[in-house]
Amino acid sequence: MSTHPADKGRRDVQAKAPTTTDSGVPVPHDEFSATVGKQGPQTIQDFYLIEKLAHFNRENVPERIPHAKGSGAFGEFETTEDVSDITCAGLFQKGVKTPMLARFSTVAGEKGSPDTWRDPRGFALKFYTQEGNYDLVGNNTPIFFIRDAIKFPDFIHSQRRKSASGLRNHAMQWDFWTLSPETTHQVTWLMGDRGIPKTWRHMDGFGSHTYQFINAEGKRHWVKFHFKTNQGIDFLTADEADRLAGTDPDLHREDLYESIRNGDYPSWDLYVQVMPLEEADGYRFNPFDLTKTWSQKDYPKRKVGTMTLNRNPDNHHAQIEQAAFAPTNIVRGIGFSPDKMLLGRIFAYPDIHRYRIGPNYTQIPVNAPISPLSSYSKEGPMQYEFNQAEMAEYHPNSIDGPTADPAKGYDFGEWDTKGSDIHREDVAPHAEDTDQVQATTLYREVLDDAARERLAYNITGHVGKIDPSETELLERVYAYWSAVDPELGDNVRKGVEGLAERGNHRLRV
User: pLDDT-derived band of residue 88, with 50, 70 and 90 as boundaries?
Assistant: First the structure.
């Protein structure tokens, strides 16, 4: 071990040593968090899940982790259709107009990174409703790389800069992806045309997770959210994006700001896919698996209304950087599902806001609800609002302090947990569930010949940054794509080997 002062505290970890907590306790599992039953809620005593998410949330100051680079605007959502048969949420009643905020972002880039890197785009929405703030925190893709929150810190670590060199490292990305085959569907989206949208205005947005809608009679449905751009889908090629990264790194931020300033207000129509509760168990794909979509032939989209962005922020830091979105913020008529990524985010997002901005982050104007507050939360750094002196500071009390009213409270969502024992395993597979099946359908049935060529080209360019000496990793990459389609795997192999022959790669760092 080095005796240099800069290396003090460096751990020597043996190869293949068992994973431990930060206290040295061997962990029960690296990939699966504990749930009550096969699709029940995650348990608070899963200390390793909590430790991973809580520690991950505190890695950087003060940037978001991830989604550091982004911007947004204010606007309005108008419900234009009658969907009262599936939800009693006030904002989704026909004719209701709700003020809102949207923030768009890249996932892996730092604050100063170019807008045109190949990366998913965050699509975070805050609705200021009369029943409290409702946040929908999604991406420009209907799926994600992983389906269990316990793997989220590892996934983000693989996409960020390597600690030793401080450089982006494509080998880390492909090492994680190829050892986590559930990433295949999302990586196929990422490497395709929609991996680099032309602007934020020219991309769709998705809630990605499965949620519940609950109507006034208490009837429940599973739903997925789709925000379809009215500007049309458009994208940048890899070569265009690389050029713009050097000449116009704030392209997307500037485009949104200038469009709104010029009165060209972007809009998106909201649709939902609706699944009856009783059909979830028998559906061919697990409907709570974040790496899967629901076929629109099986569950057609149903229009809800339109979101329009029509006002730029007055101050980017105060109204965009300090905006805090969390899937925890739901309102009456909307509930959660047994999606293991969603349930993990319910803890992680408010926790990182309490760390990044402070425990009183909801008192910042951009995060404050417009509905009345009756809270027992008190004190902490940067407290701005406080209750009247006569109000009780605890519950129960005998001086007319606020008391929960189950009749007026909202339903978080209910479902069959499939047993009350603790499980630590992957989500329950359904009839057609494999990690490659939807990526294969995307490649063979959705993309045309030109899009398939661009997909192989994009993958080749990304994988070509891996040092050719990483032969075992490269073979895994080729197998990863051959599992989607042998032709695609063969084209990627030929392309990468051609780059290596020309010496067009980066040194391993």
Answer: very high
**Strand locations in 277-423 (E):** 301-311, 334-335, 422-423
Whichever domain contains 139, its CATH number is 2.40.180.10
**DSSP string over 309-329:** EEE--S-HIIIIIT----TT-
Is residue 82 in some structural domain?
Answer: yes
Known active-site residue 4: no
Let me know whether 254 and 357 are in one domain. Answer: yes
Residues 221 and 327 reside in one and the same domain: yes
| Structural domain containing residue 358 | 35-170+196-371+410-423
Catalytic residue among 57, 133, 139, 329: 139
Q: Are residues 158 and 233 in the same domain?
A: yes
The domain tally of the chain equals 2
Q: How far apart are CA 123 and CA 315, in angstroms?
A: 20
d(CA 17, CA 15): 5
Give the distance between the most distant pair of CA atoms in the chain: 80
- Cα–Cα distance measured from residue 157 to residue 177, given in angstroms and rounded to the nearest whole number: 12
Quick check: is 185 catalytic?
no
Q: Per-residue pLDDT tens for 284-325?
A: 999 999 999 999 999 999 999 999 999 999 999 889 988 999
Q: Which of 67, 170, 252, 505 is catalytic?
A: 67
Count the helix, strand and coil residues of the chain and give each as a percent rounded to the nearest 5.
30, 15, 50
How buried is residue 496: exposed, middle or buried, by Cβ count under 10 Å (0-12/13-18/19+)? buried
262 and 213 within one domain: yes
Query: Using CA of residue 272, residue 278, residue 282, residue 285, what is the dihedral sign?
Result: positive
Q: pLDDT class for 509, splitting at 50, 70, 90? A: very low
